[in-house]
Amino acid sequence: MTAARRFAQDRWAVVGLVFLALLALAAVAAPVLVDRVLHASAFRLGMMDRVEVGGRPVEVVDELGVPVGPNARFPLGADLIGRDVLARMIYGARVSLVVSTLGTLLAVLLGLAVGLTAGFYRGTVDTILSRFVDAMMAIPILLLAIALASVLPQGSVWTVVLILGLVNWTYLARIIRAEVLSLREKEYVEAARALGANDPAILLRHLLPNLIGPLLVFATLSMAGNILLESALSFLGVGIQPPTPSWGNMIQEGMAFYSVAWWITLFPGLAILATVISLNLVGDGLRDALVPGSRQRLRA
Amino acid sequence: MSLRLFLFAAALTAAAGCVRQPEITNYEPGPGSGTPRRGGHAVFVREEDPDYLDPALSYGTYSAAVNEALYHTLLDYAHVPGPEGARLEPDLAQSLPDIREGGTLYCFLVRPEARFAAPLRRHITAQDFKYSIERLFRVASPGVSFYRHIVGADRALAGKDSVLSGVIAHGDSLYVRITDPDPTFLQILSMPFTAPVPREVAERYPNTLSQHTVATGPFRVAEFTPRRRVLLVRNPDYCGQPAWLDTFELRLGVTAANAVALTRRGLVDGGFYEVPPAEFVRLQSDSAWRRQVSVDDGLETDYLFMNVRQGPFRDRRVRQAVAWAIDRRALLKVYSGKAAVAGEFCPTGMPGMHPLERYLGPDVAKARRLLAEAGYPNGFAARLSGYTTEPVPRLLTIVQQQLADVGIQVELDLGEAVGYTSMAQDTSRHIAFGYYAWTADYVDPSNFFDTLLNGHRITALNNNDLSLFDDPWVNAHIERAMAEPDDSARARQWRAVDERVMDEAPVVPLVHYHESRLYSARLGGWYRHITRILKIEDLYLKEPRAELATAAHPSR
Question: What pTM value is reported for the model?
Answer without folding.
Answer: 0.76
